[in-house]
Design brief:
11 helices; Aminoglycoside 3'-phosphotransferase, Chain: A, domain 2; 299 residues; 2 domains
C-alpha cells in the first residue's frame, strides 16, 4: 500500500519552490535568474537557470531515478557518442515538502525534431542509426570492476501485453483493430534477444531529439537508459521516418527480422499508451501518436 501511495504522489511544483531548493542547496547559483520552460515534458517540470543551466524536477514517482542515473552514466557515455547529450552538473535533494531527488544540467540548445522537417531524410536516418550503434557498442566490460548497474534492467514487451491489448480494444475503429492485434501477436511471439545485452536509450522518439539550423544536434532525456534488448529504441523509425528513410536506418543499424518486429511492437505499444492517455486533451499528441501507430502497422 505504501508503494502504491508513493506512485500516486503528484507534488505541487512552482517557481517559488524551485527557487528555494536551488538557493538553499546550491548558493553559488542563487543570483541566477530562474524561469519556467514551456512546454515541459510529462515527466518533469523544467526551469531555465541563467543562460547555461536547466533545473528538472520529477512530476511523479516513475521519474525519480533519472537525476542520479544521468549523473552517474551520461559522462561515461558522452565521449563515445556522435551527437551531444545532456551534461549533468548536480543532483539536488528533497526539501521544502518536495519529496524526490532533482537535477541540474547544462542547458542543451536546439529545437525539437519533427517528422514534417526530417521524415524523408536518409541522412538523418543514417545519423540516428550511427548514434544507436555507438551507444550499443559502448562495452559493458570496459566499466570499472564492480560498477553497480541498479536501475539499468532491460525492458520486456510481455510487461505491456495486458495494457496494450486493452488499448487496442479501446481505439478499435479509430485504427484497424485486427491489424493491431496481428502485429502485437507477432511481436509477442518473435524470438527474444539472444545476444549479449547492450545499452539502449529507452525513450528514443522525436521529442527527445534536438536540431540546430535543421540538423540533428543532440539526444536528450535518458531516464529510460538501460542495458538489454535494444528493440525499444527502434520506435524512432516509426515516430520520425517514412518507408524510404526507415530502410536506410535499418540497413545502417543492421537490424535482424526478429528485433525489427519487436521494435514495431514497441512503437505501437508506446504510441497506443500515449494516444489513450493524451489524445483527447492534446491535438498535437493525437497527431503524433496516430502517425506512430500507423507507421508501425505499415512496417
Amino acid at each position: 500500500m505504501a508503494t502504491a501511495r508513493a506512485r500516486d504522489i503528484r507534488p505541487e511544483i512552482d517557481t517559488a519552490l524551485v527557487r528555494r531548493l536551488v538557493d538553499t542547496q546550491f548558493p553559488q547559483w542563487a543570483g541566477l535568474p530562474l524561469r519556467p520552460f514551456v512546454p515541459a515534458g510529462s515527466d518533469h517540470v523544467i526551469h531555465r537557470l541563467g543562460e547555461e543551466l536547466a533545473v528538472r524536477l520529477p512530476r511523479h514517482a516513475g521519474a525519480i531515478g533519472q537525476a542520479r542515473k544521468e549523473f552517474r552514466w551520461l559522462p561515461r557515455l558522452a565521449p563515445h557518442l556522435p551527437l551531444a547529450i545532456p551534461v549533468p552538473v548536480a543532483v539536488g535533494e528533497p526539501g521544502f515538502g518536495y519529496p524526490w531527488p532533482w537535477a541540474v544540467s547544462r542547458w542543451v540548445q536546439g529545437e525539437v525534431a519533427t517528422a514534417d522537417a526530417l521524415a524523408d531524410s536518409t541522412g538523418v536516418a543514417t545519423e540516428l542509426a550511427c548514434f544507436l550503434r555507438a551507444l550499443q557498442r559502448f562495452a559493458l566490460h570496459d566499466l570499472p570492476s564492480g560498477t553497480a548497474r541498479e536501475g539499468l534492467s532491460g525492458w520486456s514487451l510481455a510487461g505491456r501485453d495486458r495494457a496494450t491489448r486493452s488499448a487496442i480494444a479501446e481505439v478499435d475503429g479509430v485504427f484497424d483493430g485486427t491489424a493491431m492485434t496481428e502485429l502485437w501477436d507477432a511481436a509477442m511471439g518473435a524470438p527474444a534477444w539472444d545476444r549479449p545485452p547492450v545499452w539502449f536509450h529507452g525513450d528514443f522518439h522525436t521529442g527527445n531529439l534536438l536540431t540546430v539550423d535543421g540538423r540533428l544536434s543532440a539526444v536528450i532525456d535518458f531516464g529510460g537508459l538501460g542495458i538489454g534488448d535494444p528493440a525499444c529504441d527502434l520506435m524512432i523509425a516509426f515516430t520520425l521516418m517514412t518507408p524510404g528513410s526507415r530502410t536506410a536506418f535499418r540497413d545502417t543499424l543492421g537490424v535482424d527480422d526478429a528485433t525489427w518486429l519487436r521494435g514495431r511492437g514497441w512503437a505501437m505499444a508506446t504510441g497506443l499508451n500515449a494516444y489513450t492517455s493524451y489524445a483527447a486533451v492534446d491535438p498535437r499528441v493525437a497527431t503524433q501518436t496516430a502517425r506512430q501507430i500507423n507507421e508501425a502497422l505499415m512496417g
